[in-house]
Design a protein that fits this description.
- With about 375 residues, the protein is α/β, with parallel strands linked by helices.
- It is about 30% helix and about 30% strand.
- The strands form four sheets. It has a six-stranded parallel β-sheet with strand order 2-1-3-4-5-8, sandwiched between helices. A six-stranded antiparallel β-sheet has the order 10-11-12-19-14-17, with no helix packed on it.
- Helix 5 runs parallel beside helix 7, helix 5 crosses helix 8 and helix 7 crosses helix 8.
- The protein starts with a strand and ends with a strand.
- About 35% of the residues are buried.
């Protein structure tokens, strides 16, 4: 499909055009730098229209009507000229229910499109968007998430948070473009006057968001990554997209001795801990067991002999693992285990434990295999 996307250089537009390409469609991007002749040509050849263009922070309130209603009037006029029933999807706002200049202009645009559909039978989709967030959203413009991400990634000390702000509804950019695309692709439009919404959506306060983003930043020091639900995962992905290009990497702290080194990489409460174990040739590590803790070992390079013995038994199981043949070795509870570098080079072993190490409850009991 050739899909005309107005406002293609904006936050949602850039993500939408990319998503359309990924799904084998051809986006026809139209933005403020295009000439009116481009719009005429795109409407004449497109199979569907997603209208994102609009105004939400003008210098003069009169610009709300010109940007949000006038742009749609122009679009409808060109669609009528084609005589085709081109589907039109309008990106509106939950603000359309409020009696303010922005909300009024959004409501007027919605009504204009519904009237068009009633008269011509063109399929239309009106999405009332909640607060959108995700990669490429402009800080200090229309998203508190973008502003907080930008400031925290720049290590700005004073983040202004409205402590009394109530919960706000948020929708994630990938969910927005997916819903838009599915509506256009399925080709079945709801009755004029029907408002659509993006799912899923999330409720949170500015304070909670600021606290989560601050934890993400501190995670480079304490190695904690707290991603307990879908919103936190999407918020973390958004946060990473605002990192400075010279800030994509950071140091870890290896703990070394004559045997090699052990480096914690990250910890996720409820999901465990990932670490890197470097073992010098001829060295054995481990010789302990756990009651409940369990682990997975992956030899990335080198050659290691991993040995097991069930507690209170004598039979020893041995597993010869080499880095060039990827294997995962499960370390069950109740088994004394050790790992020996039997190669000639340092061995690098990736280790996962089902819970971060707790000094108060190490669940680790020394005993030789």
């Amino acid at each position: 499909m050739k899909i005309l996307v107005t406002g293609s250089e904006g936050f949602i537009g850039k993500n939408l055009c990319l998503y359309l390409k990924q799904n084998g469609e051809e986006p026809l991007g139209f933005d403020r730098d295009n000439a009116e002749a481009d719009l005429v040509a795109f409407v004449a050849e497109c199979d569907a229209i997603i209208h994102l263009a609009g105004v939400n922070r003008p210098k003069d309130n009169e610009e709300f009507v010109a940007g949000n209603v006038g742009s749609l009037e122009t679009l409808i006029k060109e669609v009528k000229k084609t005589g085709r029933k081109i589907p039109i999807l309008l990106s509106s706002s939950t603000q359309a229910i409020f009696d303010n200049p922005y909300g009024k202009s959004k409501k007027e645009a919605e009504d204009l499109l519904f009237d068009f559909a009633r008269v011509t039978g063109n399929p239309v989709y009106v999405y009332r968007l909640a607060n959108a967030f995700g990669k490429w959203c402009r800080p200090y413009y229309n998203s508190v998430v973008a502003t907080f991400c930008y400031e925290i990634c720049k290590d700005q000390p004073d983040i202004k948070v409205n402590e009394n702000a109530p919960e706000i509804e948020f929708v994630y950019i990938d969910d927005i473009v997916r819903c838009f695309y599915q509506s256009i692709k399925q080709g079945v439009s709801p009755a004029p006057g029907t408002y659509l919404s993006v799912t899923p959506s999330y409720l949170s306060t500015p304070r909670k968001i600021a606290d989560l983003l601050t934890k993400f930043r501190k995670g480079r020091d304490d190695l904690q990554i707290a991603l307990q639900d879908g919103f936190e995962k999407k918020l973390y992905a958004t946060y990473l997209s605002y990192l400075r290009e010279d800030d994509f990497w950071y140091d870890l702290v290896p703990h070394g001795d004559n045997r090699g080194s052990f480096t914690e990489i990250f910890k996720m409460p409820g999901y465990g801990q990932v670490s890197l174990n470097v073992i010098n040739p001829g060295i054995t590590k481990g010789n302990h067991y756990h009651n409940s803790k369990n682990e997975k070992f992956v030899v990335l390079s080198g050659r290691c002999l991993i040995s097991f013995r069930k507690v209170n038994t004598e039979e020893v199981l041995k597993y010869d693992v080499q880095g060039n043949i990827p294997k995962v070795v499960d370390i069950p509870p109740g088994y004394v285990h050790s790992i020996t570098n039997v190669g000639e080079e340092k061995a690098y072993v990736l280790m996962w434990a089902n819970e971060p190490f707790d000094m108060e409850n190490p669940d680790t009991f020394p005993e030789k295999v």
